[in-house]
Amino acid sequence: MVLIDLFLTFLKIGAFTFGGGYAMIAMIQYEAEQHGWLTQTELVDFVALSESTPGPLAINMATFVGIRTGGIPGAIIATLGIVLPSFIVILIIAKCYEKFRKSRVVGGVMAGLKPAVVGLIGAAFISVAGTVFFPAGLDVSAFSAVSFWVFIALFALTTVLAFKKVHPILIILLSAIVGIAAGYALGL
Predict the structure, then answer these.
(1) How far apart are CA 42 and CA 135, in angstroms?
(2) CA 69 to chain CA centroid, nearest Å
(3) What whole-number distance in Å separates Cα of residue 135 and Cα of residue 157?
(4) Helices (H), the chain
(5) Residue 56 DSSP class
């Protein structure tokens, strides 16, 4: 039964979430919590782990949730569920693209989806940041926590390095090193 739930849930996520992996985080979080598969803290850990491993975020997330919930078969089923809708849609679009490429309706749909995707990504960011920095709710003491300032420093550093066109792998490695060092220094 859990394999069917995994497949149908990730099929729904794959079918109804536009904008890629970041836009899917909010829906994955909602579904994983509703099914009792993950806590918010575990989800944040999986997002970090998914970002640190090769491959698309949503597929990595589906694989991690699947393996946690249903072992290897769960990982395969969840991954298949999240990939299948995109695969089918891309096949259809590739077949019809030339015919409808200049359509005003298609242009209007794309123009309407862009802000929605940005909103979903923003909601996912706020949700994950809230779980990390304000697990007990909005509290002024979170702003005095060292982990908050480590985040601010890392965010500023990665932003500067990204604008300077430093390779993303180097940024990820540097962030991991700083995070590990901060964790040991703070006893986390």
Answers:
(1) 12
(2) 18
(3) 25
(4) 2-16, 21-35, 40-52, 57-100, 104-133, 146-163, 168-186
(5) -
Cβ atoms of 44 and 80 closer than 8 Å? no
The secondary structure of residue 135, as a DSSP letter, is: T
Provide the token pair at 60: 């990595």
CA distances to 42, 181, 188 from 184, in Å: 20, 5, 6
Q: Write the CB contacts of 43 (distance below 8 Å, at least 6 apart in sequence).
A: 28, 29, 32, 33, 128, 131
Residue type, 129: A
Q: What residues does each domain of the chain span?
A: 2-134, 145-188
pLDDT digits (tens, 9 = 90+) for 54-95: 778 888 888 989 998 999 999 999 999 999 998 898 888 888
The pTM assigned to this predicted structure is 0.57
CA distance 74 to 71: 5
Instruction: Write out the two tokens for 183.
Output: 């964790």
